[in-house]
Amino acid sequence: MLVGIDGSAGSERAFKVGLMIARQREWPLRLIGTFIRPVVTDDYYVRQLDQYRSEAASSVQDLLDSYSARAVEAGVEVTTRTAEGDAGATLVDESSDARIAVVGKRGRNRFAGRFLGSVSAKLTAHAHCPTLVVPERWESGSETELLAQHQDRPDAEAAHEEPVTLMEESGAREHSRRSFANVTDALNFDSEIVVGVDVGDRAADVVHLAAEAAELVDSPLTLVSAAPLNAQGHWYPNTVEHNLELPNLRRRYTDHLEALTQEVAAKSAGVPVRWQFFDGSPAGVLSEASRTAALLVIGTRGHGGFAGLLLGSVSQAVLNRAVSPVLVIPTHKPHRLRRH
């Protein structure tokens, strides 16, 4: 279990989540702190560089020691490392030996701290293991209304609310959920783990890892796919030809969702699992789902509704706008969250 520590509120959240998982799974905790070597040219500052590096390293190690003491007190095995250099690159290197990496994310919504941040962005894009990004959850103490606002269109943040329509689903939810005045029933994933599903070859890997996470925390799992079915991007009427083709477009996704749902039900019998297919952009649907979901799970690559998820605007929109924690899974190698 790898956690990046820099003393910020984000790293505090990441540490708490990492510590909770490490205790639950009886995994060792690895805490990493970094400092940047300044670029100096003046002779005076060159002579002071060694003193700076020593003091910076000592300061970072003191911070790591304070977190380490909390882990030891919680009964978790812990190691630390103070490194000189780029924090994102260091965490990427360390991730090659980790089961999962945890980092915090700046900002409370799509306007405050809009960008993901260089460290979390680099880690989610290049980590060798799954990465859990923990944002500052923006909600009220109310049981009936979330403060998290509806998601806007990814290409126009101040534009109209992005249209999202539930087209098909496998069946009604069997578990109880809170009801929120500003969340539609179709997009209310209270207490659920939501996994974004594409139609690529590696979608099953992401879904089964999401099922493991659901089993670990005893939560229901919902598979979600989305595609903008309107030929003109929702804003103009479809052509007759496009309307005739819509059932085939939908079936591509719903057949895939149904097959994956049956696989999960057979492999993880203890996990309640269902699926939903939406008419809307993948980024908009997943971002909206994150307002209520306990966890959002996405893969790093795809070939359908979530194609190129970490390679462009879709990934940035999801990770920047998500209210819930997001588990990002690289699909180039197998991963397991289980203890054995």
Q: How do the helices and strands follow one another from N- to C-terminus? A: EHEHEHEHEEEEEHEHEHEHE
Number of individual domains? 2
CATH level 1 name of the largest domain? Alpha Beta
Q: Which value, in Å, is the CA radius of gyration?
A: 21 Å
Strand content: 15-25%
Kindly state the number of beta strands: 13
Name the CATH homologous superfamily of the largest domain.
Answer: HUPs
Distance between the termini: 15 Å
In spatial order, strands of the major sheet run 3-2-1-4-5-13-12-9-10-11-8
Which outline best applies? elongated
Please bin the fraction of helical residues: 25-40%
Structural class: alpha/beta
Mean pLDDT across residues: 81
CATH architecture tag of the largest domain? 3-Layer(aba) Sandwich
Characterize the main sheet.
Answer: 11 strands, mixed
Poorly predicted residue ranges = 107-115, 153-160, 231-236
CATH fold-level label of the largest domain: Rossmann fold
Enumerate how many helices there are, as a single number.
8
Protein name: Nucleotide-binding universal stress UspA family protein
Pfam family, one: Usp
Family: Belongs to the universal stress protein A family.
Domain UspA: 1-135, 193-330
